[in-house]
Amino acid sequence: MVRKLYRNYFKNNVFLKMITLYSGITIVTIITLSYLMFRSMSQSIVEKELDIQKNAMESVSQYLDAKYVAAKDMTIATYRNESLSSNLSFFLTHPFQEYAQHKLDQYYNDNADKSTDVLEFLKDQLNNDPDIRNLMLYSADQQNLFTFDQNKHFNMVSTNAAHSYIPDSMAQESTHISLPNVWIRTAINQWDSRLFSVRVPLNDKMTLKNIGQLLVFYDADKISNVLSSYKGKLKGDIAVISVDGRVLYDSSSQYYEKSYPYTEQLSLYSDKSTQPVDKAMYINKLTSNEGGYMVIGVVPKHVIGQAYNGLRNTIIMIGALCIIISIVIPALFVANYAKRTSRIIKFTRKVKNGDLEARIEDNREDELGQISKSFNNMMDDLNLYIDRVFKAEIKQKHTELAALQARINPHFLYNTLEVIRMRAISQGADDVSEMIYILSVLFKSLVQQKEIHLFKDELEACRLYLELFRIRFKDKFSFQIEIDPIHSSRVVMKMSLQPLIENYIVHGIRTERTDNHLSIRVLQEIGFIKVVIEDNGRGIESERLAQIKDSLDKPEEEGGSFGLRSVHARLKLLYGAPYGIDIQSELDNGTTVTVRFPDMEGEGDQYV
What we know:
Layout: H1 2-10, H2 14-80, H3 82-93, H4 96-108, H5 118-128, E1 132-139, E2 144-149, E3 154-158, H6 166-172, H7 182-188, E4 195-203, E5 210-219, H8 223-227, E6 237-242, E7 247-250, H9 263-266, E8 275-278, E9 281-288, E10 293-300, H10 301-305, H11 309-331, H12 334-352, H13 367-387, H14 391-427, H15 432-447, H16 455-473, E11 477-482, H17 498-508, E12 516-525, E13 528-535, H18 542-551, H19 562-575, E14 580-586, E15 590-598
Parallel strand pairs: 11-12
Antiparallel strand pairs: 1-2, 1-5, 2-3, 4-5, 6-7, 6-10, 8-9, 9-10, 12-13, 13-15, 14-15
Helix pairs in contact: 2-11, 3-4, 14-15, 14-16, 14-19, 15-16, 16-17, 17-19
């Protein structure tokens, strides 16, 4: 039955196929877009709610950091007051009775300032910060714990190591924000679970020796005051966890004196990123490296999901309406499809008759538009394939270039090694090792197959080559290379300047003179780059100069001056007639070689 329907209505009916295919694509597209839209908008709602939670977490972190800094500022305040710092050191290193006598002596000596009294200082700190529940000083020497509670009641507790574990715990306890130590809780009878502790070491200002510690117990419930500004907006709960995974604060009051779940998993994730630790909830983490705590935000997914339930129903209704319209409207355009089909058939007949330039003008993106574009692309590819026949000639030129390159390297090798050999025989100088090193670096740059060869690479090879002969001829030879840094990144063919330098060393330098000089200048001209190589050597006779110029464009068998001709031939092959070399010389007055390169940066034939 299905096959019969297909043969009768679909097999030879392109229009019905088009309508069915178009409708199917449209339906899938609308469903996909609706899903992506819903997902994007619901994700925006989720991110907004999570951003509120992250802001609340940052507010909690700022509050905790402020308390942490406030505890440290207490010790800094004692160090700034010389008398208070001295009294604090005396207080922590002597029995309390001696400190009382010490203060009486100060009083009778008319030096009684309440601001320098350690106990009065601690009372002032309690007055300044109502969030403090207990403020304590621990004396390492006397092993005593001096405490003030929220009502400023003072008490001194003996913590001798023989009867208490407090000295050991004080020596080991971290300076991060943490839960109060259980031994200190026992000593001061403070068992409120909603507290967090900050410990600050105290050192003698003069000797820098540790003399005790300052401990501050803060009321963790005060953190709820920070979250009050987010009331009605904040969803989920916020908790503060210490380094060892213990709960310092929990807005839900579920995990006090318990281990917080997911602590180990959260340690693997980065800060300020929402992590799927639990499939049923979103969890955020904010870590304070200085305070040593984590602020964790937890919100169930179903709580946030309630915010976009109405959005889901609206998108479903709009999607269904679009699907209905997409099925009805294509049927109205069948006649138009028939016309376009006839146009495609007409085009194929033109191509059959040899018109390879014929193209269908159809900018629509439906199936027939794609067919039209496919035909156009096919014709473009066909014409391009025909053009590729000419690339055989280009490959032949590259073969010639490779042959020229193979001739240059040995030519340079033999001349350079001969110079080093003669230098070693004539003097046996210590600088022979330097010449050999330079030579090795130079050959490395020549052999290295770089995809892009730049002016700075070519000039560096020239500099190394000339440096060999500067060592060889001592004070008889100097050279200079000038180039604007902007030209250093221009592309140039390899071994385009070194053969010209070699010609001067072999034929132009006068060993009997002491003022031999060679200069290389890279200049910018309109549309090209010009390199001028100028020397004060022997020069060239006019007849010989004419022969050299004439031989530049001749095959290798018909002329000498291989180095000059190889550079000139490669420039002509790669870049065309406007590029190459020009030679000007006068006997006994030196030679000037001008080389013209195209102005290219990172494109073209890079390595030849």
